[in-house]
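thread from #wetlab-drylab

HS: before we spend reagent money on co-crystallization trials with iron/sulfur cluster, can we at least see a predicted complex? here's what I'd submit
DV: go for it
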Amino acid sequence: MTGQKPIPVMEIFGPTIQGEGMVIGRKTMFVRTGGCDYRCRWCDSAFTWDGTGKSKPMVAEDIISKLDTLAAGRFDHVTLSGGNPALHAGIGDLIHKLHAKNIQAAVETQGTIWQDWLTHVDDVTISPKPPSSGMETDWKKLDTFMTKLSPQKTSLKVVIFNEEDYAFAKLVHMRYPHISFFLQVGNDDIHTTDDTTLLTQLRYHYEQLIEKVMLDSTLTNVRVLPQLHTWMWGNKRGV
Amino acid sequence: MTGQKPIPVMEIFGPTIQGEGMVIGRKTMFVRTGGCDYRCRWCDSAFTWDGTGKSKPMVAEDIISKLDTLAAGRFDHVTLSGGNPALHAGIGDLIHKLHAKNIQAAVETQGTIWQDWLTHVDDVTISPKPPSSGMETDWKKLDTFMTKLSPQKTSLKVVIFNEEDYAFAKLVHMRYPHISFFLQVGNDDIHTTDDTTLLTQLRYHYEQLIEKVMLDSTLTNVRVLPQLHTWMWGNKRGV
Ligand code: SF4
Ligand code: SF4
């Protein structure tokens, strides 16, 4: 194992569908890494960084054998999520080993930390965080991502909770108009277990967001999506 | 207008989101053409061919000016749906004129009738009809589509109502493994106005379909999606 950098892994599960963004509906496995350089107010994965969850250091082979234990032969796509997976240099080796087995890799990151292995990822979703998160975007860093990544394999996704977030989304899209752009409804009730009420709220917010975008002449080449997994399974983890 | 072939148009509406398939969530206008060479048992657009709706012959300019009346400056994508839009030679001219205005065009067809203008379409969804439709697939004709279309711009979508449909979906995917493949939950209650009950049913069927696909080692590089517009607006037309 010399030279291999372990990755702090919070959870591995699947196969399930990707509920969001550019490959919504895709059959995929999930590997969720620990640690984040952000502290978003509404983070739905705060257990990856607030001390309430515990990660396990795993090298690529460990992760792949865990994936195989869960679903050998039933998957060809793995989504690396966090936290911010781009904190971890060891993911480069994991992607390399997945590709050797004809398995694709997707990554979601907020676009704050560059890793060269990102150029090998099949679907990269960059999700700059809007004002409601309490975080601030470093546009120069984001520019680096957009310069280095291939547009065909990259998308931008902004989660919308309020008017300011919507204005921020426009800025992002106008700065990188050639990158596939997704607006996503924010989930502002990340702790409820009342799935029916949650779905009613999320549908309502989705309809409102659709209406707004449809009337907007500055947002044309865009996609507006819900989080399908939340519509299906509420705030439950590991589905 | 010499040489222009009018297209029988049933309805033009939007902008709204594309509720299905490869560009799910995309802001788009819809142009629905009249006439179909199929008679699917569960067709949700039977008014395009069963005599209950009335079409209007329109040439490309008419259609574009109607689109502009509805939403000038607020759209850059038009979805041509039916019926079977591939019945109409005149659509070639429409696509040409849309492209001249930097507007993309998507088409959905069952893959029975080839038109050379299909090679100019930005997103082509081929939806071969499963056994529950009562229709039979002409595989040779479908092969023509798959040979002539560019894989990057093409997807296959199969609607699933039952076990036989699921088996059919596998056949389609195995025959064209390099084409993006979507499984979609069928709506077997196309007349109800009880949106709440409909959503409960559709979610249940979607969850069942997801579970099935997740356990299936012959379906890995696939996407499983609902019809988002039906989840949002039930069986209402023109949204
Ligand atoms: S960037 Fe993502 S994981 Fe990190 S705090 Fe924000 S929402 Fe949570
Ligand atoms: S091919 Fe489409 S429009 Fe034609 S009958 Fe079947 S479902 Fe209806």
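DV: Residues A 36, 38-40, 43, 45, 48, 82-84, 110, 129 surround iron/sulfur cluster (ligand 1) (CB under 6 Å).
HS: ok that's useful, forwarding to the group
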